Amino acid sequence: MLAFTGFTNVRWGTEIDVFSGSRHESDAAEFETRGVTFAAYLA
After folding, report:
1. Distance (Å, rounded) from C-alpha 29 to C-alpha 25?
2. Model-level pTM?
3. How far apart are CA 5 and CA 41, in angstroms?
4. How far is residue 31 CA from its own chain's centroid?
5. Which tens digits make up the pLDDT trace of 1-43?
6. Alpha carbon of residue 18 to chain centroid
7. What is the structure's pLDDT at 29?
8. Strand, coil or helix: what is 9?
9. Which residues 6+ apart lie within 8 Å of 16 measured at CB?
């Protein structure tokens, strides 16, 4: 998807639980929500 919007050299990071310890942790766990970092260049 990022390539279709003009980004190049896309690199994906590790999937992590970004809501651990937050007040919305139970909501995020219900939907198995995770965060993923990425880096890319805009061509």
Report:
1. 6
2. 0.51
3. 11
4. 14
5. 888 999 999 999 998 888 788 887 888 778 888 888 889 999 7
6. 9
7. 79
8. strand
9. 34, 35, 36
Confidence at residue 10, expressed as pLDDT on a 0 to 100 scale: 92
Counted residue by residue, the chain has a size of 43
> The tokens of 5 are what?
């919007």
Residue type present at position 26: S
Asked if 35 and 15 touch (Cβ cutoff 8 Å), the reply is: yes
Between CA 38 and CA 43 the distance in angstroms is: 16
Token pair in block for residue 24 = 């919305």
Question: Residue 11, SS3?
Answer: strand
Distance between CA atoms of residues 33 and 24, nearest Å: 11
